[in-house]
Structure formats: C-alpha cells, structure tokens
C-alpha cells in the first residue's frame, strides 16, 4: 500500500513535487509529519494553467479577431480601444525597425487583446497575423514593445500513393495531394520523367511530412523518400543530407539530378560570349547574343550537354540545322548552325550526356563554322557559362553506411505501400 502511494506521487511530475515541498516548508500551521503526501497532492494543490494566445497570457484579457479592410490603418483599427495618439505615434516610429505598420496588407488577419473597464475597451496588444505561422506582436500595455514570432509547427509524417491518369498534378490533387507536394515530386523526378507529357499508368508513392499549426495544415515539410514507376521502370528517391542541405539519391547513391558538360564539344575556343548587346557580323547591326559561340572545325562532334529528351531536330532559316534538348522541367539546351544532325537524333528520343547529336557547321545565319550553344532556364535564355546549378554529387564514401540503412528502411516501407484502386464508374449503369 505505502509503495503504491509513493509511486503515484512521483508520477505527478517535477512541478508538483516542487510545489509539495514548498507547501511543506511554508504551511507552518500544519505539522509536516502529520500531512501525508497523498492528501497534499490530491486536495490542496491548485492546478493553475494559464491561458495563452500567441504566447501571451490572456487570463484577464478579451480577444478580438478581425481582418484588415482596404485602406484601414492601425489608427482606425484601434479606434474604439482607447489608444492615445502618443502611443500610436510611438508605435509607428518604433515599428519601422521590426515590422513597419504601413506594410499591413488588406485581408490579412489581426487580433486585439484588451481589458474591459466600465464598458470601455483598452487595448494591451495588437497582433498582426499575415499567415498561419508568422505573427507580429505590438505590446502597448506599458512601454511599447514590438516583436516577431511564430506559431509552433507540428510535423506529421504522411504517405500518399496513386496512379496517373490525366497528369501528375490533376491526379495527385484528386488523391488528396497538395500543390507543394506535386512540385516537389516533379522536381525530384524531373530528370527521369517528363511530367509534361501524360504517362497513363505511371504510379507514385511518397513518404513526406506535413506541417500543422493548431489543426490547420500549413504546408509540406521534407519529402523523405519517394517512388515513381515510369513506363514500367522503377525509380526510387531517398533524401539524404551530406552537409550541403540535402539531395535526392537513387538506390545506387547517385544524385537524381544530372550534371552538365562544361562545353558541348572538344577542340574549340569561345568566339563570342552571351551578351545583351553585340555587333552582328552578318546583319551588320547591334543585336543581343543570347548564346555562347564556340569556333571549331567543320564536322567537330557536338555532344548533348546532359541527359534529356530531344524536342527539336530540324532546319530553320536563322538557326540552320539545330537540336534542342529538354533536360528536366525547367532546363533546356539548344545547338545551332550544325553542318548536319547526327543520325537517329529526332524529336522525342532520349539522349545521354556526352552523346553526339550533330556536327559543327555554318548553316543558317553564320559567317564561319561554329556552334552557337544556348541555355534555357524556366523558358528564358541565360548565359550557359554563368548559370548556377546545384551540384549533383553522389553519396560520399564516408556516408555510405548511413545512407544504406536509410535506403533499406525506406525501400521496405515504400514497397509495402499499396497503390489504391481507382473507383471505376460503371457508365453502363447510369443511362
Ligand atoms: Zn551564337
């Protein structure tokens, strides 16, 4: 019996034990030796739990929640809360260093904490809540204090699996996915799968994190591992951080992103760099040059700068014989003025980094044999020599053991996830 009682006491937690000790010391009217621990804890310890709102104790305060209307400023929002002009002025001055009150957006949420005295309202805090996570507190109770804070984010691990019927976007969204997750998956597998063309029957499985504030989902966290079956080929992706912020690796520990050749041909020199403005030798006028020119002997092989799918392989008046390759969702390269396009290189075929796609020439608008190499990022031409692409390094030797254990855990988990059956509507029944 006595043992049981002691056990229960400990289970109340440190705060209770400390309070009990304090009680024994200070309650002089009760002889200590006559008070059993059970009695103290069960009957006399007040369980004071303060009520918090955005980190502020609001036991004696009222909370009003509103939405900023068009053309509303802090002065008219706080109009009925008895804030002096002096306080408002000090607020606008002090806020500039933390969060400028003039930057409040319309339709953004806010809260006012106030005390009520003789049916008059006195604001103690104004809280600007531009999104579900971030908020700015303007404490005007005594001296003005302004600070930014964040709501606590709870991370929940989730799984999502399905198949593609229309597109990755449509099908994942219908399956309860989130637009951020669709973008993540498109990015992870962007080098292996062309998500712009429909691949009916492809399947995906994702193990990822969702972020919650209170009970509202506010975004996607880390995609820990994913699987994509593209036209019968299985592709696994495992997130692993080698100290550079993390990347996705396949089963062999190779980065799922591919690197680019420094130059798409050998035995050449750069004869003209990318520039916004240059004098065009053929057109005899100033014109921007959105490529890098490599002067090289006619017939020099031109290589695909990286893995991708050929989107153009044809003759066009200014470009001459040219090839364009799409590498992933947002990167493409283009190769102009070829004497001829390599055999087998045509629209829709896959090419590997370093594969010969054509030969240097001077077809189209060109004075002499050279390759005009163009780099496209998000549909815009950029300087191939300056474009910053994240490195695509494999798992380092020293990380292999750790990566192997992560890979085997997640491979097993991914393999156990079933692709849910589609609900096939019976069209014959609904005539
Ligand atoms: Zn050029």
Write the layout of secondary structure elements.
Blueprint: H1 2-10, H2 14-26, H3 37-44, E1 52-53, E2 56-57, E3 62-67, H4 74-77, H5 85-95, E4 109-117, E5 120-129, E6 134-139, E7 145-150, E8 154-163, H6 168-174, H7 179-188, E9 203-213, E10 216-230, E11 233-240, E12 247-249, E13 269-272, E14 275-280, E15 285-289, E16 292-295, E17 301-303, E18 308-316, E19 320-326, E20 331-341, E21 350-351, E22 356-360, E23 370-377, E24 380-382, H8 400-416
Antiparallel strand pairs: 1-2, 3-4, 4-5, 5-6, 6-7, 8-9, 9-10, 10-11, 11-12, 13-16, 14-15, 16-23, 17-22, 18-19, 18-21, 19-20, 20-22, 20-23, 23-24
The protein binds zinc ion (ZN).
Describe, in plain words, how this protein is organized in 3D.
The chain is 18% helix and 36% strand. It has 431 residues and is an alpha+beta fold. The protein folds into three domains: 52-150, Nuclear Transport Factor 2, Chain: A (Roll), CATH 3.10.450.350; 154-249, Nuclear Transport Factor 2, Chain: A (Roll), CATH 3.10.450.350; 269-382, Glucose Permease (Domain IIA). The longest helix is centred in the last third of the chain and has 17 residues, at 400-416. It is extended and about 90 Å long. 25% of the residues are buried. The structure holds zinc ion.
């Amino acid at each position: 019996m006595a043992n049981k009682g002691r056990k229960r006491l400990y289970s109340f937690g440190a705060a209770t034990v400390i309070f009990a000790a304090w009680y024994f010391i200070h309650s002089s009217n009760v002889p200590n030796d006559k008070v059993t621990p059970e009695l103290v804890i069960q009957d006399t310890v007040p369980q004071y739990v303060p009520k918090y709102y955005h980190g502020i104790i609001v036991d004696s305060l009222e909370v009003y929640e509103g939405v900023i209307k068009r053309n509303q400023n802090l002065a008219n929002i706080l109009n009925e809360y008895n804030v002096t002009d002096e306080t408002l002025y000090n607020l606008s001055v002090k806020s500039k260093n933390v969060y400028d009150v003039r930057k409040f957006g319309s339709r953004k949420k806010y809260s006012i904490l106030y005390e009520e005295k003789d049916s008059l309202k006195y604001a103690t805090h104004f809280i600007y809540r531009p999104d579900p996570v971030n908020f700015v507190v303007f404490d005007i109770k005594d001296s003005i204090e302004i600070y930014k804070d964040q709501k606590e984010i709870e991370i929940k691990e989730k799984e999502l699996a399905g198949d593609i019927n229309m597109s990755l976007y449509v099908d994942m969204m219908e399956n309860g996915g989130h637009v951020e997750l669709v973008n993540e998956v498109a990015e992870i597998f962007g080098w292996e799968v062309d998500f712009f063309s429909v691949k009916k029957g492809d399947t995906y499985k994702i193990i990822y994190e969702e972020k919650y504030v209170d009970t509202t989902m506010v975004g996607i966290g880390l995609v820990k591992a994913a699987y994509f079956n593209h036209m019968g080929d299985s592709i696994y992706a495992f997130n692993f951080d080698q100290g550079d912020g993390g990347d996705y690796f396949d089963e062999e520990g190779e980065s799922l992103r591919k690197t680019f050749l420094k130059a798409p041909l050998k035995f050449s020199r750069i004869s003209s760099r990318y520039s916004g403005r240059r004098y065009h030798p053929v057109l005899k006028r100033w014109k921007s040059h959105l490529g890098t020119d490599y002067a090289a002997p006619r017939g020099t092989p031109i290589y695909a700068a990286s893995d991708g799918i050929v989107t153009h392989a044809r003759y066009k008046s200014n470009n001459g014989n040219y090839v364009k390759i799409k590498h992933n969702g947002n990167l493409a390269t283009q190769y102009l003025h070829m004497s001829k396009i390599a055999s087998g290189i045509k629209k829709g075929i896959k090419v590997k980094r370093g594969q010969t796609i054509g030969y240097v020439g001077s077809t189209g608008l060109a004075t002499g044999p050279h390759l005009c190499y163009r780099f496209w990022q998000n549909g815009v031409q950029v300087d191939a020599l300056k474009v910053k692409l994240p490195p695509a390094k494999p798992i380092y030797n020293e990380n292999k053991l750790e990566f192997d254990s992560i890979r085997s855990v997640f491979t097993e988990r991914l393999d156990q996830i079933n692709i849910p059956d589609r609900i096939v509507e019976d069209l014959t029944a609904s005539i």
